[in-house]
Amino acid sequence: METVIRPMLPSDAESVENIEKECFSSPWKYEDILYHASNGNSHFLVAVIDNKTAGYIGVIETAGEAYITNIAVLPSFRRRGIAKALLTAAVDGAKKRDCEFITLEVRESNSSAISLYEGAGFVKAGIRKNFYSNPPENAVLYTLLFKE
User: Fold this and answer.
1) Which domains does the chain have, with CATH numbers?
2) Which residues, 6+ apart, have CB-to-CB distance to 56 below 8 Å?
3) Which residues does the annotation mark as catalytic?
4) Tens of pLDDT, residues 39-76
5) How is residue 36 annotated by DSSP?
């Protein structure tokens, strides 16, 4: 089964919303996902396997800066390199669009995501105290610089 990484379309919003609901305690709403499917500053990608959306990554860019909003893979598709493929595609896209860096926040307890980001060259840049709710937790800020 081949994984296809492609830009998110408005028709993907419902499946991305379902991924949000399954993967996050505070999921994004359908309307917000749909908005990003057609916003010029948003570069959301989906991973599709056998016509099923297995995961997605959201990137918002402004003033040469790229910010990863979320990355999620359905539990039944995890441990197949999908998150890594999504992250690589998002980083490559931000570089091609001439961003200076890409950044994200991650729950400090999410060791598998932290391992993914560090493996991709992201460097810890700080802590955001009590950034998350449901449950409350600090976020670790990671950044990957493209230009010095």
Assistant:
1) 3-145 (3.40.630.30)
2) 8, 12, 16, 19, 44, 45, 46, 47, 70, 71, 72, 86
3) 105, 117
4) 899 999 999 999 999 999 999 999 999 999 999 999 99
5) H
